[in-house]
Amino acid sequence: MSFQHLRDADGRPAWSGVLPGRPEPYVLRRGEGEHANLFGDLFTLLVSADETDGQFGVFTSTCPSGELIPTHSHAGTHEVFHVLDGAVRLFLADRDGRHRTHLLRAGDFGFVPAGLPHAYRVEEAAQLLGVVTGGFERFPQTMGTPTDDLAEQPPFVPEVPRLLAAARALDVELMLGFRWDVPGDEEGR
C-alpha cells in the first residue's frame, strides 16, 4: 500500500515542518500540531517518535460521542487514555482473560499495556490526551487524512484495504467479532 495521501506535491509529509523532527525543545500553542481526521475524531499530534528518539508519542483527540472503536491490540505499543473533558468507556481484557469496563470522566486515566485487547466508546463528546510507544502516534495520519481544518468535519472512514494496510504497518491486530463479556460496570478501581 502507498501512503502517498500523506505527502504533498513535492513528496514531503503534508504536515512537514510543524514539529521539529528531531529532539529539541519547542512549544506549540493552542490548536497547533499535526492534525488528522479519522472516524470523525480530530487527532492532533503534539510530539512524535522523531522528537523523542523513538521512545513515545503524545497526541490529543477531540471526539464526538459514537460507536464502539473496534477491539484491537498492538503487541509492541503501550497506550494511555487521559480524559480531559467528556466521558469515555474503556473496555479492557487483562492477562488472565478477565474483561472489565470503566467509565472515564474528565480527570480520569487509563493504561493499556502492549498486547492486551481493548476498545473504547465515547459516551459524551470528549477530549483525550494519549501517550503511546514511539511510532504508533502516526496511526491516525496513516489510516485517516491529514487536515488543517480544525472545525468539525464529516467522518473520514478509510476503505478496508487502507485500514488493513495501516494496521499491518503499525502491528495492530483488529479483533473483529470480539465479544465483551462484562457483567456490569466497574466504576471503581
Automatic annotation (TrEMBL):
Residues 63-128 form the Cupin type-2 domain. Pfam families: Cupin_2. CDD domains: cupin_QDO_N_C (cd02215). InterPro entries: Cupin_2, QDO-like, RmlC-like_jellyroll, RmlC_Cupin_sf. It comes from the Bacteria. This is Quercetin 2,3-dioxygenase. It comes from Kineococcus endophyticus.
